[in-house]
Amino acid sequence: MQRQEPAAGTLYLVGTPIGHLGDLSPRARDLLAAVDVIACEDTRHSGQLLSGLAARGRRLSFHQHNIRTRLPQLMELLAEPLSLAVISDAGLPGISDPGEELVAEARRRGHEVICIPGPCAATTALVSSGLPSDRFCFEGFLPAKGRERRERVARIAGESRTSVIYEAPHRLLTLLEELEQHCGAERPLQVARELTKRHEQQVGPSVGAALEHFRQTTPQGECTVVLGGAPIAVDPEPDDTELKQRLQIKIQAGSSASEAARQLAAETGLPKRRLYTLLHQEGSQAD
Ligand code: SAM
């Protein structure tokens, strides 16, 4: 027999649609209609969905800017004990959305945490990409710019598993250009745009093809990028001459010597110190 929901003192993480409203599960509907309190990333955004369900629970905002003040209040509500649901604007709370700290704190205080699963852009994009889904890395949003971003992109380029990246449409072209620089134009890639919505679209099948498309058509809507893994090197370790050349290419593209060594270390699995030393050997132009 299934347990009674919602239960007092329990935190429910509820998956909501990423576009198509028909993707809200019957279990999520029933739970949201009956739970005592609903923590919403944006109460106005979720208002429409919740009004359609005649949800009776009190609604509270819970987003990245009020986590510190809201968290203790939500813990008090659970302790009363009330039932509490958390939803984000779209998809699964806790996936590039608030939820993680709330779950950790609720667990720390001994509350039960139950996820009512639902759509997630990352897994929806992954399984519809045609790229290997047996092992994959979720990268979420990359740092917006600077060294941190360059390092993440370099690490992702060297990753042998499929990577899934969330990106804002106004930064998509930049990301594709960065990926072309690090992975080459031929690397398999699929951009999933507007998943589950009227204008759902897949653009691929490679970095170069996606770049060509989005240079002609300004990216719009929500986009998730699925990048095929780096081929697993079967040949012997690259020799010093090749390593030096690859380091020089990175330096000419604007990386410092240290960054170039770090990037190549991520791509080849070789120790950074060894690569850095190569740059300072006779015949190299590190500076
Ligand atoms: N919690 C959400 C989930 O479970 O997928 C993710 C929220 S995150 C703030 C928003 C990002 O997810 C968007 O910038 C986009 O990269 C991706 N995304 C959300 N909905 C999407 C959709 N319908 N199609 C493609 N990507 C989507």
Describe this structure as you would to a colleague.
It contains eleven helices and ten strands. The radius of gyration is 23 Å and the shape is elongated. It folds into three domains: 10-119, Cobalt-precorrin-4 Transmethylase, domain 1 (3-Layer(aba) Sandwich), CATH 3.40.1010.10; 122-227, 2-Layer Sandwich (Methyltransferase, Cobalt-precorrin-4 Transmethylase, Domain 2); 240-281. With 287 residues, it is an alpha/beta fold. It starts with 9 loop residues before the first strand and ends in an 8-residue tail after the last helix. The relative contact order is 0.12. The strands form two sheets. The protein has a five-stranded parallel sheet with strand order 3-2-4-1-5, sandwiched between helices. Bound molecules: S-adenosylmethionine. Residues 18-19, 88, 90-92, 95-97, 120-122, 166-168, 192, 194-197, 222-224 line the site of S-adenosylmethionine.
What structural keywords apply?
single chain; 287 residues; alpha/beta; Cobalt-precorrin-4 Transmethylase, domain 1; Methyltransferase, Cobalt-precorrin-4 Transmethylase, Domain 2; 3 domains; 5-stranded parallel sheet; 5-stranded mixed sheet; 11 helices; 10 strands; 16% strand; elongated; binds S-adenosylmethionine
Quick summary:
By secondary structure, the protein is α/β, with parallel strands linked by helices. The chain contains eleven helices and ten strands.
Report the biggest beta sheet as strand number plus sense, adding barrel if it closes: 5 strands, parallel
Using DSSP, what is the number of strands? Answer: 10
SSE sequence, one letter per element: EHEHEHEHEHEHEHEEHEHHH
Which architecture name of the largest domain does CATH use?
3-Layer(aba) Sandwich
Structural class comes to alpha/beta
Helices, by number, come to 11
